[in-house]
Design goal:
alpha/beta; single chain
């Protein structure tokens, strides 16, 4: 697992390498959890984890770019 900055994660989303799922419904996150995934990168700030990169078994790459409940639901 790689440690990144939040700025790097947002840049990867902007470039189209990752799909931002920060504001998706929990039902979408549950589908990702059931299909299987691996956390391949995390960013940390003053108060803990602030974002993560996820590789799903179906070949898609996802990112969570904000510190919210969905981040801790997945990571």
């Amino acid at each position: 697992m790689e440690t990144l900055t939040k700025k790097e994660i947002k840049r990867l989303v902007k470039n189209g390498a990752y799909i931002d799922i920060t504001n998706e419904k929990y039902s979408t996150l549950e589908l990702i959890r059931k299909s299987g995934y691996e956390v391949i990168g995390k960013s940390y700030g003053k108060y803990g984890m602030t974002g993560c990169l996820i590789k799903c078994r179906d070949g898609n790459y996802y990112a969570i770019t904000e510190r919210n409940g969905k981040l801790f639901y997945i990571a």
